[in-house]
Amino acid sequence: MVHHVSIHGRSQLCCMARSHKEGHTLRAVDRGGTMLSSLLLLGLLVCLLWFCWPRRPPGFPPGPVALPVLGNLLNLNLTNPMKDFERLAERYGAVYSLFLGPNPAVVLNGIHTIKEALVNQAAAFSGRPQDLLVNKMTQGKGVILVDYGVQWKEHRRFALTTLRNFGLGKQSMEERILAEVKHLMEPLEESVGGTLNPQVLFHNGSSNIICQVLFGKRFDYNDPFIKEIVHLYTENAKIANGPWSMLYDTIPMIRRLPLPFRKCFKNVRRCQELGNSLLKEHLDSRRPGQTRDFLDCYLEELDQRGDDGSSFGLEQLMMFSLDLHFAGTDTTSNTLLMGFLYLMTHPLIQERCQQEIDCTLEGKEEASFDDRHQMPYMQAVIHEIQRIANIVPLSVFHCTTNDTKLLGYSIPKGTMVIPNLTSVLNENNQWKFPAEFNPDNFLNEQGDFVKPEAFMPFSIGPRMCLGEGLARMELFLILVTLLRRFKFSWPEDAGEPDYTPVFGVTTTPKPYRMHIQLRNQQ
């Protein structure tokens, strides 16, 4: 019995030993399999990163190292990247590159670089990138954001001719502007002795001036149409160059998600509805051969062309008009806002402007655009406002239309190009006082007005701003008329003025209030 048990015990011990050994072997096999899986997964991840890692094409401009998916997103402050653009230019030079997500972009800095690209090689650099939020908003129509081609050429030529025929630089346009200035003055008169936030007022006035050109009518400042469309423009301007727009442009996989940038598309649809109501009025009331405004001229052009296969059409007209309305409203109003911020906080400059205005307009009921030739200091101040305001700091993005070279670098067709206008408007060797608000930047030793070559707030080349002529006339007539009547000052209880702009498609100053006095009651 003892012998039997002993044999049985030894048998159990042997089985246990074998089981332990087999378990150890299985665990070793499991660990080996897990390690192999981990190595394969790591290898797959490395291969994925290798293939996804952004690479600069041969001969491409230098720039910071980019990450997969994000590109150089972490190199930029999404709220206001202008300091980052300046920092990168100091490190990499006048031409450098960034990756916006997986897509390479070339940034141009300084007057000589921007002129070389946008003027000397205009055809190669006059395209527009077509996969950005702002392009999706305009649905490939209009004139500002469409690519370089037949549609753009036809509509730009038509716009330039039509705007010129409607009196830009002529008395008829002056009368429209001066009539609107009278409406601007009403709320200012009501606020004499107190303060006013001018933001909505200047947007309304600028909107009405371009409305008269486009639609042949103006709107009361309390009219639901103008209140809503100005609000929609302002909201879209903030989104379109803010952080959500940057994320939309750089990470395509998030575009269908219910994120804040989708508000833009809703706003554009509402703008189209408002615009279509005006178009319907014109279609119902127009008489062929009679042109009251821009819409009538376009409809007349459609009648003459018939079905000629051109890019002209009613859908195109709607987005074309909204393009011009937005550009004509936002840029001028934000320039005025920035201008009065600086004039209030530089009272000696404001006073010298008023002295020149009084002297030049003595005995005249109102100013005319031709009076600018007798107002060198006023002209210098207006141009300095535009320079320091820097309303469109990165212009509108361009795109190369073919493989090309720039300053020794190779730039493939379809590359996004960002003209950094800030680098020109603040360029050290181009301005006497690049970092401060000083009208002497536009005056020679004799006190005559001079415009340096580096003054390009409207950009340069074939795609420069269509509305430059209208904007120049508006700024002169509005500023001269208001400064002749009122004194504007910084409210005593408002704290220190903040000149830091709010970055967007166009930059604007932070909201402020102005103290208003009648000059004849000081």
From TrEMBL:
<keyword id="KW-0408">Iron</keyword>
<keyword id="KW-0349">Heme</keyword>
<keyword id="KW-0472">Membrane</keyword>
<dbReference type="InterPro" id="IPR050182">
    <property type="entry name" value="Cytochrome_P450_fam2"/>
</dbReference>
<dbReference type="GO" id="GO:0016712">
    <property type="term" value="F:oxidoreductase activity, acting on paired donors, with incorporation or reduction of molecular oxygen, reduced flavin or flavoprotein as one donor, and incorporation of one atom of oxygen"/>
</dbReference>
<dbReference type="GO" id="GO:0005506">
    <property type="term" value="F:iron ion binding"/>
</dbReference>
<dbReference type="GO" id="GO:0020037">
    <property type="term" value="F:heme binding"/>
</dbReference>
<dbReference type="GO" id="GO:0005737">
    <property type="term" value="C:cytoplasm"/>
</dbReference>
<protein>
    <submittedName>
        <fullName>Cytochrome P450 2F2</fullName>
    </submittedName>
</protein>
<dbReference type="InterPro" id="IPR002401">
    <property type="entry name" value="Cyt_P450_E_grp-I"/>
</dbReference>
<keyword id="KW-0812">Transmembrane</keyword>
<keyword id="KW-0560">Oxidoreductase</keyword>
<dbReference type="InterPro" id="IPR017972">
    <property type="entry name" value="Cyt_P450_CS"/>
</dbReference>
<dbReference type="Pfam" id="PF00067">
    <property type="entry name" value="p450"/>
</dbReference>
<dbReference type="GO" id="GO:0006805">
    <property type="term" value="P:xenobiotic metabolic process"/>
</dbReference>
<keyword id="KW-0479">Metal-binding</keyword>
<dbReference type="InterPro" id="IPR036396">
    <property type="entry name" value="Cyt_P450_sf"/>
</dbReference>
<comment type="similarity">
    <text>Belongs to the cytochrome P450 family.</text>
</comment>
<keyword id="KW-1133">Transmembrane helix</keyword>
<feature type="binding site" description="axial binding residue">
    <location>
        <position position="465"/>
    </location>
    <ligand>
        <name>heme</name>
    </ligand>
</feature>
<feature type="transmembrane region" description="Helical">
    <location>
        <begin position="35"/>
        <end position="53"/>
    </location>
</feature>
<keyword id="KW-0503">Monooxygenase</keyword>
<dbReference type="GO" id="GO:0016020">
    <property type="term" value="C:membrane"/>
</dbReference>
<dbReference type="GO" id="GO:0006082">
    <property type="term" value="P:organic acid metabolic process"/>
</dbReference>
<dbReference type="InterPro" id="IPR001128">
    <property type="entry name" value="Cyt_P450"/>
</dbReference>
